[in-house]
Amino acid sequence: MLIPQLTRGTIAPDVLVDLHRLPGAARLRTSAGATTLGAMVSYTTLIRDPTAPPLLRHIAQGITGGPQIRNQGTIAGSACYANPASEMPTALVASGAIMRIAGPAGTRSCGAADFFDGAFTTRLAPNEALVALDLPASTNSPDYGYCKIKRSESSWPIATATALTSGNGMLNLVLGAAVTRPVTITVPPEISTLTVATIDQAVEHQGAEWWADELADIGYRRRVAIVALTRALASLQERIVKRDRP
Questions:
Q1: pLDDT digits (tens, 9 = 90+) for 3-53
Q2: 3-state secondary structure of 136
Q3: Cross-strand partners of 171
Q4: How far apart are CA 139 and CA 164, in angstroms?
Q5: For strand 28-31 and strand 34-38, is the pairing parallel, antiparallel, or unpaired?
Q6: Which of 9, 23, 80, 83 gets the highest tally of CB atoms within 10 A of its CB?
Q7: What are phi and psi of 156, to 5 degrees?
């Protein structure tokens, strides 16, 4: 989003820092099942690398825009911009990603669930940069569910939902686009229905708010959110059944 903002004149930074010279900035590395994404790993890199986490590859393939967006857009950049409608923040929270942050005081780590602070805001300090993202081995599982609902092919999503299994046998559903920051809802594997009340409680408990913009108001997004979550849950459950089928 940097180039469009510069072109429109909505931002005028005094200094721009090119992260390409950071060692490994554009590399995707997998070791013992865990994956590290450098700050300059693009959507195209995810799509072309067969070792990339399946969920992230799936989402990268469906990013709105042509080759220029997929070639220039980065996962770290999407995270730092923290657009509520963006797809990657939701996937990173669902995956349990650890954000590696560097600044004058040294380096620190922050879980993705804590990194996103609200609409277009993160826990990055003004003098810090996100230099890498670490994803646990569990993200390489082919068992995932994902749903994206948009008004048109070229628009930002109205709601996104990701479903993954957790380490304790529960299912983690993460809602995005309809809320100001990704919201996690943990449910038992045998659940078949969700309610708006359950989602409302999770949104309030996790300090998020329902999101509204020119594409949709809060009322519409609340109704669409439960559809997206239900479809993501059903997709995950279907994959699990197929995997376990003799």
A1: 667 777 777 777 777 777 777 788 999 988 899 999 999 999 999 999 999
A2: coil
A3: 165, 187
A4: 9
A5: antiparallel
A6: 80
A7: -65, 150
